[in-house]
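G., the chain you wanted modeled:
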Amino acid sequence: MITPIQNFSSNKKLSPYNLKRSSAYERDVNSYDRIKASVGALIGTAIPMIVMMKKRKISNPLKLEYSLSDMVMLSGTSVIGGVAVGMIGDSKEANKNKFKEGTFQFLNASIPTWIVGGVLKLCESNKKFNNVPSKILSIFGGLLVGMFGTAEISNLIFDPKDKMPDRKLTLKDCIANADDAIGALTLAKFPIVSQLHVDKLLPLIYAYCGYRAGKSN
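Predicted structure as tokens:
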């Protein structure tokens, strides 16, 4: 079922353009949607992990260590899995929107990590900035630029003429960006991070991103 959600007061007059910009359309997300998205995201996360374990001759997934390319691959396959399985039995329009959300989730999980990875390399190549405070500031700045940049890039890709409401960052998006923060800390190789093994949470967060994309309404 598709229901219009109007974000304006009936007493307020809006131009046709603003009226269109103030309306959004959603369809109900049911248990079947959530199950499909969960299964797809888990499969999309598990398969590359199994491949990595086989190549590195590791039997325990908790012993996997992730490079930047591993993080990008996992974020991509989890989203692909969630969206692909989530599309089963849905309408063409719903699947089109899931594809858009999947693209956003992938970019949101990848671009900030790429930016932080690049900035950290610059820090490490300069003796003046190769220290913990500089790396922390680089991580924080890279994540902010990456997160908001991702939203803008996604909107430009799918709505270049700015005809529909923009895809804005939400609190859930920021929670999902925990993978970028954890990935960035892992790349920074802070001793305390290695001791806490926070990178072991990455597959769960990537699976969550895939789930969100797969059940997108």
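The chain has one domain: 31-214.

Shout if anything looks off.
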